[in-house]
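This section describes the prediction task in plain terms. A model, or a person checking by hand, is given the sequence of a single protein chain and must write out its three-dimensional structure as a string of tokens. No templates, partner chains or ligands are provided. The sample shown here is typical of the held-out split.
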Amino acid sequence: MEQIQQFLPFILMFVVIYFFMIRPQQKRAKQEKQFEQNLKVGDKIVTKSGIHGKIAELGETTVVIETMAGKLKMERSAISMEMSSALANK
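The expected answer:
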């Protein structure tokens, strides 16, 4: 019984860390993956580096976006879910 009481604070700390840090991060990663899969040609997006454009082509892991400067090829993961959603809601 005394051994359980010694480890109880560590167990509680792990539970708190799981629910406040690990679980929300997993949920966010799942939402970003869903967002990347739902992209389609013609969507207006903003990249994580702040580049605005419209999707011209979609590949398996890459995307070609059309900007005012021309076309750029980049990874799908470079598209910001939050900024693109905010742009779509304007």
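For orientation: Residues 18 and 35 are 24 Å apart (CA to CA).
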